[in-house]
Amino acid sequence: MRNSPYRDGQIFHRSDGKWMLTYHQEGLGEQDRVKEFANRGIRRCLDDDVPVGVLIEQEKKGRKSSYLVKGLATVDDWVGDHLALSAAVTNGEPSERTRTFQDILTADAEISSQSSVVEIPDDYDARLRVERTIVARRGQANFRSEQISSLDGACVISGCEVRAVLDAAHIMPYKGTASNVVSNGLLLRTDLHTLLDRDLLAIHPQTGEVHIAQSLQTTEYGGFVGMTALSGHNLEVRRKALEIAWDRYRRMTGL
After folding, report:
1. In degrees, to the nearest 5, what angle opens at C-alpha 158 toward C-alphas 155 and 161?
2. What is the pLDDT of residues 78-90, one digit of tens each?
3. Binning pLDDT at 50, 70 and 90, where does residue 76 land?
4. In a domain, 7, yes or no
5. What is the mean pLDDT of residues 7-32?
6. What ranges make up the beta strands (E) of 51-199?
7. Is residue 3 part of a domain?
8. Residue 233 has pLDDT above 70, yes or no
9. Which residues belong to the signal peptide in this entry (predicted)?
10. Residues 6+ apart with CB under 8 A from 191
């Protein structure tokens, strides 16, 4: 939208007919994911794989605007204040989901050597850039549902039960649908999910205790140090994945 405080991305068209874009959530902060009605609705679309309609503003005169009906899109990812959307239908057929901002930034790599693709402007790339160490996958609806059921619908560290800010986090990095298993998942509050993906947080595979990087121990996150996040069966079924993540955490933090 023109003259808006929100920074929506431009539409990127691929030669295979698929289009993608980023959309700024309503509101400018993490708290608005829960506060704003529109954001709660979009979150449900993300969780339940429900397409959304995309309208592109063409002209604004006073309070009146004209729009181009772009079509249906899937909500593939939500990082920070932005959502990744991609065409739900191309050439009359359902299109494969793109899933993440990382995918949007690299989507043309496979076809760039064989065909002409619209270039992504530098400012678009800047708006989308997410640190490569963060692979923010909300996962498939089934993966999320399984984690909610397995872990009683609460963040294993903070105890938060607000579904709108809970993520089905992968303990080991996402590498395809085979990663979407209970033994490789945790239910985490969004900010704690980010710390996990940045190797600033880990759960000890033997004790289930929370460890936080030294650089964060004087912050609010220091209060989680030593808490028991997992125990019993929940710890046991995730132990192998936690061991791999623990080794990575130790290397990254110099333990």
Report:
1. 45
2. 777 777 888 876 6
3. confident
4. no
5. 74
6. 52-61, 64-79, 82-87, 89-90, 93-94, 166-170, 185-189
7. no
8. yes
9. none
10. 30
- Of 76, 99, 128, which residue constitutes the final position of a domain? 128
Task: Kindly report the backbone phi and psi dihedral angles of residue 45, in degrees, each rounded to the nearest multiple of 5, phi listed first.
Answer: -65, -40
Whether residue 135 lies inside any domain: the answer is: no
Strands 185-189 and 166-170: antiparallel
| Whether residue 96 is found in the same domain as residue 154 | no
- Reduce the DSSP state of residue 133 to 3 states and report it: coil
H/E stretch holding 153 reads: none
Comparing 205 with 33, the larger pLDDT belongs to 205
Q: How far is CA 73 from CA 23, 76, 178, 190, 230, in A?
A: 11, 9, 25, 24, 37
pLDDT at 246 over 50: yes
Number of domain units in the chain: 2
Strand partners of residue 90: 93
Are 117 and 221 part of one and the same domain? Answer: no
Find the domain containing 237 and state its range. 141-253
* Judgement on whether residues 107 and 147 belong to the same structural domain of the protein: no
pTM score, whole prediction: 0.50
Long-range contacts, 225-228 (Cβ 8 Å, 24+): 227/157
